[in-house]
Amino acid sequence: MTGSEASPSFRLAYVPGVTPTKWVRIWNERLPDVPLTLVPVTAADASGALRGADADAGLVRLPVDGADLSAIPLYTETTVVVVPKDHLLTAVDEVSEDDLADEIVLHPLDDTLAWEGLPGRPAIERPETTGDAVELVAAGIGVLLVPQSLARLHHRRDLTYRPVPGAPESRVALSWPQDATTDLVEQFIGIVRGRTVNSSRTPAAAQAPEQSDRRRPDATGAQRKPAAGKAAGGKPAAGKSAGGKAVGGKSAGGKSASGRSAAGKSAGGRTAGRPVRGGSGAPKGTKRGKPRRSS
């Protein structure tokens, strides 16, 4: 990051049609001690305002003039045609460039759309500003093609507009001088890009401490906590004995210790079939008695 110490305020230039309200609100919430000042500029003067240090950053229309200015595209606007409310073009939801072939299309000097060839018939003179062109539309002189935000900015009750698909569109961007990328500029970049206050790319972000988890390996590669089915040495605790033979299934000699002796056959080799009552391994037919109480 370059630039000198942060200034006590932040100046944001913006061109007509751009509404910075949402970003200004977020700025005031995150940096209440750093006032943000809005600097309105024309589209033609925006680059000069940034170079002349009249603003720290600006919401401008692309393309920016010169390689010394950085720019981050934010959004693209729909192009519309502004017409009187009783115009024939209001009968459709969208207007094509071919529909404008017989119309006088006004082309103000501050137009921000990159036309290869303006549709319709040209006016005798070009209006000085978009505002002047809107007045001529209201007077029935012609129609006007502008970004939708400018149509809303110059709204009149006797005028309306329709989208023109396929027409050149205007892109809005955040721009600032490359050699003046201060901490405050970085803060505003984070806001327009939707970064949270705890983002690692935000200079003032507070890094949350990492939480330890004993069940997972640590940074040194320590083993996980032994599972319930294994002993601490990694060998089964219940399934096999230390010698590798089953404890519950077979005895050390290979014969069943529980399945054949207790459940399958009695100690004398006869089938028990049912749990033995009165004593373990009692032969069949033995008289059963009540267990004596221990004295």
Q: Say how many strands there are.
A: 10
Q: Count helical runs.
A: 6
State the major sheet.
Answer: 5 strands, mixed
Strand share of the residues?
15-25%
Give a concise summary.
This protein is 16% helix and 18% strand. By secondary structure, the protein is an alpha/beta fold.
Report on this structure.
It is a single chain. This protein has 295 residues and is an alpha/beta fold. Helices cover 16% and strands 18% of the residues. It has helices at residues 21-30, 46-51, 130-138, 148-153, 183-192, 259-264, and strands spanning 10-14, 36-40, 57-61, 69-77, 79-84, 104-106, 121-122, 143-147, 159-163, 170-177. The protein has a five-stranded mixed beta sheet. Strands 7-6-8-5-9 form a five-stranded mixed beta sheet. Helix 1 links the parallel strand 1 (10-14) and strand 2. The N and C termini lie far apart (89 Å). Residues 204-276 and 278-283 have low confidence and may be disordered.
List the helices and strands and how they pair.
Layout: E1 10-14, H1 21-30, E2 36-40, H2 46-51, E3 57-61, E4 69-77, E5 79-84, E6 104-106, E7 121-122, H3 130-138, E8 143-147, H4 148-153, E9 159-163, E10 170-177, H5 183-192, H6 259-264
Parallel strand pairs: 1-2, 1-3, 6-7, 6-8
Antiparallel strand pairs: 3-10, 4-10, 5-8, 5-9
